[in-house]
TrEMBL record:
This is D-inositol 3-phosphate glycosyltransferase. GO terms for molecular function: glycosyltransferase activity. The keyword RNA-binding does not apply. It comes from Microbacterium dextranolyticum. GO terms for biological process: carbohydrate derivative biosynthetic process. Residues 22-35 have a biased composition (Pro residues). The keyword Glycosyltransferase applies. Keywords: Glycosyltransferase, Transferase. Residues 252-404 form the Glycosyl transferase family domain. SUPFAM superfamilies: UDP-Glycosyltransferase/glycogen phosphorylase. Residues 60-239 form the Glycosyltransferase subfamily 4-like N-terminal domain. It comes from the Bacteria. Residues 1-41 are annotated as: Disordered. It holds the Pfam family Glycos_transf_1.
């Protein structure tokens, strides 16, 4: 795994996910013990933290991006951070030092297998997860395990940590309904698969000290879905210092989307809205940053709608290009109906962009209708076109007001506040 930043934004593909040579593995005996004999766990600083992540760099999705920022942020505060995740390629497994967000992180890459129906998904054989969990916990002896997924790696580590009395914090980034497109099962079995997945999630979460998810809406969804209580909303957080808003007056015509090109993102709805607006806004353009299994279909849709000359598919880009895309856009449009938060939307807000978003799941927590942009009825092309028109034709004063509202609204999502909250949970301290 090469050094340097591997991914840029959640929901925003950046960089290539191709396999690359990893540095020589560090043997488990080289991992320093976390608990010197006789030293009380509760008073020792810094903490040793194991982060269980079914998806991590170089993957390009929201859960992976959050796990990277969390790991790097905790390491930057002096904690000993170990990430457990699938390898890139079945043979490239071992223990590596990887530079994530400028911090050297110990990454335990378990033998990973590609899932052919998906464009990047890798997984660890479920029946091996407990075996790997025992090996990692034996070597690292952590103060706490933080699971980012209840599906495979997090599931195994949660169970073994629970057996050993190691506290577990669980964060849910998953809507099981989002993965049924890739099960390759007949539709009649999808509901059964989803129910089994959520039943198992409940058993896993019941073994955790605390369960978190990025927003209050996502917490309510989880509580209603699996009948648990006390789910804590904690923003994934962003470092707004990385984004430079352009508040100078200019002509507005550039629409931007950043994210994975998958079915639940419904980018085709935005394409249709662009086609609807083209006759009255002749300069309108649409930049799409990200890769995914739907790219070919979306390119064909753009051609069918007659807007291919207005739409640019940038694919996966690096961090510098990503920030430049935010800097040159005039409005961020997201038609997704399955966002538990949307880091890409927060990055757009930190870049001073008005947002037009589907009124679905957690997006209304980021977009205040008529304040920092507009909400539209999910799937309604006419409504989306109308809201985009309002932003792109707004007076300079109105547009600047929406920009400032986005900047003000993202303040509560500062990554430092997120790290403060998780540190309290790791130590078993009450949240203020």
């Amino acid at each position: 795994m090469p050094s340097g930043k591997l991914t840029g934004t959640a929901g925003a593909p950046v960089g290539d996910a191709a396999e690359s040579k990893q540095p020589p593995p560090v043997t488990p005996t080289a991992i320093p013990p976390a608990h010197p004999e006789g030293e009380p766990r509760a008073t020792r600083e810094p903490l040793t933290i194991v982060i269980a992540a079914d998806t991590f760099a170089p993957d390009v999705n929201g859960a992976a991006r959050f796990a990277e920022r969390l790991a790097a942020g905790l390491a930057g505060r002096g904690h000993h951070v170990h990430v457990v995740t699938p390898s890139v390629g079945h043979r490239n497994h071992g223990v590596f030092t990887e530079n994530i967000e400028g911090q050297d992180i110990t990454v335990h890459r378990l033998p990973g297998v590609r899932w052919p129906p998906h464009d990047w998904l890798r997984f660890v054989w479920p029946w091996r997860s407990k075996h790997y969990a025992r090996k990692v916990l034996d070597a690292v002896q952590p103060d706490v395990v933080h699971s980012q997924s209840h599906i495979v790696i997090g599931r195994g580590l949660t169970r073994i940590a629970h057996q050993r009395g190691i506290p577990v914090i669980a964060t849910n980034h998953v809507m099981a309904e989002n993965i049924i497109d890739f099960t390759t099962l007949p539709p009649v079995l999808d509901k059964i698969v989803v129910k089994l997945a959520w039943d198992d999630a409940k058993r896993t979460f019941d073994m955790s000290r605390a369960v978190t998810t990025p927003t209050r809406k996502a917490a309510e969804f989880l509580e209603d879905t699996i009948d648990i209580t006390g789910v804590i909303p904690i923003s994934c957080g962003i470092d707004k210092r990385n984004y430079t808003p352009d508040l100078t007056p200019r002509e507005h015509h550039r629409v931007l989307f950043v994210g994975r090109l998958t079915t639940e993102k419904h980018v085709e709805v935005t394409l249709a809205a662009i086609a609807k607006l083209a006759p009255e806004l002749p300069n309108i353009t649409f930049d799409i940053v990200g890769g995914g299994d739907q790219r070919r279909n979306l390119e064909q849709t753009a051609q069918r709608l007659g807007v291919s000359d207005r739409v640019t598919f940038h694919g996966r880009v690096d961090e510098q290009q990503l920030r430049a895309s935010y800097g040159t856009a005039d409005v961020f449009a997201i038609a997704s109906i399955a966002e538990l938060q949307s880091i890409a939307t927060m990055e757009a807000m930190a870049s001073g962009l008005p947002i037009v978003a589907a009124n679905a799941v957690a997006l209304p927590h980021l977009v205040q209708d008529g304040v920092n942009g507009y909400l539209f009825e999910p799937g309604d092309v006419d409504d989306l076109a109308d809201k985009l028109r309002r932003v792109l034709t707004a007076s300079p004063e109105e547009y600047l007001r929406m920009q400032q509202a986005s900047l003000d609204g993202v303040e509560i999502h500062d990554i430092e506040k997120t790290l403060d909250t998780f540190e309290k949970l790791y130590r078993g301290e009450p949240l203020s």
